[in-house]
Amino acid sequence: MSGVAGTGKPDSKRRLLPLMGALAMLIGANAAWARVPEPYAYEAVELQASPKVAKALFDGVDPNGLRIFTSENGVKMNVCEIFWAKSVTDQDVKTGSSKLVYPNLKPGAFVGLIHFLPEADQEYRKDYREQKLKAGYYTMRYGVMEAGIGEHGPEPGDFVVLSPAAFDHDPARVVPPNELNHLSRMASHTKDPAVMSLIEVTTARKNFPDLTTDYAGTCVLQVKLHLKPRKGGSVQDLAIALVVLTPLAEGEGS
Predict the structure, then answer these.
(1) Helices (H), 36-105
(2) Half-sphere exposure of residue 92, counting CA atoms within 13 Å on the CB side?
(3) Percent helix, strand and coil across the chain, each to the nearest 5
(4) pLDDT digits (tens, 9 = 90+) for 192-241
(5) Residue 60 lies in a domain
(6) What's the domain range around 180?
(7) Is the predicted pLDDT of residue 1 greater than 80, yes or no?
C-alpha cells in the first residue's frame, strides 16, 4: 500500500515538468521572434527645401505632410516624413478585370516623397522585404510586383516603389517598369527593388489620414490621393492604405 501511495503525485509532477518546459521554450521563441514598439503616431509637418532634392519634386507634392514617430524608453523618436503628390496619374480599368487592389493607378506614376530621418534607428528604416535603407529622401511611385506564390504561380501585388530622390527628378513623368526597378535597386543596394506594400483600406475607419499599429507592431497609414482630373472633369480622390513599418525583430530598436 505504501509503495503505491508513494508513487502517485510525484509521477504526475514528473509528467507536467516536460510540458511546462516545452511551453516555456515556445513562449521564449515567440518573444525572440519579434518585439513590439510603442504605438506609432503622426503629426503635421511642413516640407523643408533641401539641396539634395530637385525643385520639381518639391513643387510636385503637397508641402503639408505627416511625420510618423514612436518612442523608445519614453523618449520620442521621429521615424519618417511623408508628402503626397498634388495629383496622381491613373488609368481606365474595367471593373472586376484585375486582382490588384489599386488597378486604376498607373504603374510608374509618382505618388509622393518619403524622408527617412537620420535620428531614427536603422531598424525603423526598412522596406517590405526587410531591406535596410539609408536616411534621406526617396520618391514613391506605384508599382506592380510579385507579392507571393499562389495556386497558379507568382501573384502580382500593389506596392510603392522607392528610389533615391537624387536620381528621380520628374514627378510628372511615368517611369517604365525596367527603369523603375533599376532606380529602386539604387535605394536597396541589392538585386531587389525597395518597396512598401499597399493593402486594402479598412472601411470601418472613416478618418483620413488615419494611422494604426497592430499587436505585432505593423504600422499602416490610410490617406486619400488626389487623382489627376480628366479633361473637363473634376478632381477625384482615391483612398489607399500603405504599410509604413513592419514588426521589429528581437534586438532591433533601442
Answers:
(1) 55-59
(2) 1
(3) 20, 40, 40
(4) 999 999 999 998 878 899 999 998 889 999 999 999 987 767 778 999 99
(5) yes
(6) 40-196
(7) no
Domain count, the chain: 1
Phi, psi for residue 198 in degrees, rounded to 5: -105, 130
Q: Is residue 247 part of a domain?
A: no
Q: Record the cell numbers describing residue 179, joined without a space.
A: 527603369
Mean pLDDT of 3-32: 43
Q: Are 97 and 115 in contact (CB under 8 A)?
A: no
Q: Which three cell numbers stand for residue 174?
A: 511615368
Q: Does any domain span residue 4? A: no
**20: in domain:** no
State the Cα–Cα distance between residues 69 and 72, nearest whole angstrom: 10
Q: Can you list the positions of beta strands (E) in the chain?
A: 41-46, 64-72, 75-84, 110-116, 136-150, 153-164, 194-199, 210-213, 219-227, 236-245
Q: What's the pTM value of the predicted model, to 2 decimals?
A: 0.81
